[in-house]
Amino acid sequence: MALAYNHEEIAPRELKPALLELEGISRATIEAHYKLYQGYVAKRNEILGKLAGVDLTSANQTYSELRALKVDLTFAIGGIKNHELYFEHLGGSGGDPRGRFGELVRRDFGSAADWKADLKATAMAGRGWAWTAYDWDEGRLMNYIGDAQNTFPVWNATPLVGLDVYEHAYFLDYQVARAKYIDAWFNNVDWDAVNARLAKSL
Fewest CB within a 10 Å sphere: which of 16, 28, 61, 154? Predict the structure, then answer.
């Protein structure tokens, strides 16, 4: 029986040169972080290849090859999507959100300072990720938490900002001082990139 896994292998997106010259986030950290992203791309390709030959009749919710591959696929693809978002909107001058995104932040959080405080707290409470997403059902921006690449997805919400707080994102530069890394991250956001993503989504 033919499966719908007639996929093409993908390649990692190129790393923008500006990401190697961030304020407070070292080149070594970004280069190591990018290698991790490359690994997610490789695993996505590998898993889709294996799914092409899996036995569908052996599927089982306790354990089966199909279940294991499908679960791991969510982690690999989540790692790709999260990191492409993360790298896409770094390399800017930071500051308060500008443009349409800034308007939505002020509308939905009251002020840029309140949005930053909430996103920072969300990131401190998470084990892996914090996102600002436009929730289509709520009709507003919301800050959401994720403990891994594939945990706590919120259906019908479009991520616009992704903040990686896994240790690999900051340990070389800040050891366990995650809050200092988050402050540095805010100083490097490219609001033009955020607004470009917003324009495609809303």
Answer: 61
